[in-house]
């Protein structure tokens, strides 16, 4: 019964945490018995079971309970198979969604070596606009996961493609994550490539795209500031924060903190 398998998946994370805390007594139980079940249920015929398996996997990754070898040898190969060009549409959409969500929880080397090439392929998927939409909505997170060099070499060309996509929802998603993408690049790339690209979005024929671009204008401009003098930085949750200068803090040590936090639109991308 699918409901039994779904319920089982919901119990996997607390069991895994218990086994981790009791590791001297159960040194290999999780890796031998539970992890194979999670991996198998990622390809279950029932979509509710697959969804429960995906949620369980993300919790396990967030809690750092999955060994690096299991990620590279068991999880990533399954996701690559599910997101292959000839894969079933429903499986592909689910796979690209979980790839984007887990990227921030993996090592940079793993993401760049195993998942980034497939992500770049999916950005150009001509069959399913849903796949491209997920890639566009999570583009900033992928850039942050792989760093500046891979972003400028591999991801920026794909970002240009998505920003000129025929579907306006794709262009809108790009406008919403523009600050996060810009923050990962060098000042020269911001000036020479991203600025003209942003102008094209702010002049888009679709008013929804223009509106999203105008909402991202301030955060995008903030990426041109010198962090050491302006105190601008991006938190792990995707928000843009302004840290007061050290001399101001000392001068007003008796005053309440005046930290300002601006939420990045990419943090709310779905």
**Strand-pairing-aware structural class:** mainly alpha
Tell how many strands the DSSP assignment holds.
Answer: 3
Roughly what percent helix?
A: 55-70%
Number of helices: 15
Would you tell me the overall average pLDDT?
A: 84
What is the first-to-last residue Cα distance? Answer: 31 Å
What is the quaternary state of this protein? Answer: single chain
Strand order of the largest sheet: 1-2-3
Largest sheet: 3 strands, antiparallel
Radius of gyration: 21 Å
Compressed to H and E, one letter per element, the order equals HHHHHHHHHHHHHHEEHE
Outline type: elongated
Into which percentage range does the β-strand content fall? under 5%
Instruction: List the uncertain runs.
Output: 246-270
Organism: Dicaeum eximium
Keywords: Repeat
Protein name: PP4R1 phosphatase
GO molecular function, one term: protein phosphatase regulator activity
List keywords for this structure.
disordered C terminus, 3-stranded antiparallel beta sheet, mainly alpha, 270 residues
Layout of helices and strands:
Elements: H1 2-21, H2 29-41, H3 47-62, H4 68-82, H5 89-102, H6 108-123, H7 129-137, H8 139-146, H9 148-163, H10 168-176, H11 178-184, H12 187-202, H13 207-222, H14 227-230, E1 232-234, E2 239-242, H15 246-251, E3 260-263
Antiparallel strand pairs: 1-2, 2-3
């Amino acid at each position: 019964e699918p409901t039994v398998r779904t319920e089982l998946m919901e119990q996997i994370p607390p069991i895994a945490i218990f086994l981790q805390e009791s590791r001297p007594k159960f040194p290999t139980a999780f890796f031998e018995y539970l992890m194979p079940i999670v991996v198998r249920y990622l390809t279950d015929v029932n979509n509710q079971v697959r969804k429960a398996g995906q949620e369980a996997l993300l919790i396990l990754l967030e809690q750092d309970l999955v060994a690096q070898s299991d990620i590279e040898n068991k999880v990533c190969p399954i996701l690559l198979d599910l997101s292959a060009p000839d894969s079933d549409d429903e499986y592909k959409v689910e796979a690209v969604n979980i790839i984007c969500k887990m990227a921030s929880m993996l090592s940079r080397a793993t993401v760049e070596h195993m998942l980034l090439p497939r992500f770049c392929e999916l950005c150009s998927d001509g069959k399913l606009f849903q796949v491209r939409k997920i890639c566009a909505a999570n583009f900033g997170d992928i850039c942050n996961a792989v760093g500046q060099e891979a972003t400028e070499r591999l991801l920026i060309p794909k970002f240009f493609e998505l920003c000129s996509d025929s579907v306006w929802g794709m262009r809108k998603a790009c406008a919403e994550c523009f600050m996060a993408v810009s923050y990962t690049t060098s000042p020269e790339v911001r000036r020479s490539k991203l600025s003209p690209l942003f102008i094209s979005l702010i002049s888009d024929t679709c008013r929804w795209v223009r509106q999203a671009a105008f909402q991202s204008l301030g955060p995008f401009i903030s990426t041109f500031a010198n962090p050491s003098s302006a105190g601008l930085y991006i938190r792990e949750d995707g928000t843009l924060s302004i840290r007061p200068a050290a001399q101001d803090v000392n001068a007003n040590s008796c005053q309440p903190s005046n930290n300002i936090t601006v939420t990045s639109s990419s943090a709310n991308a779905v």
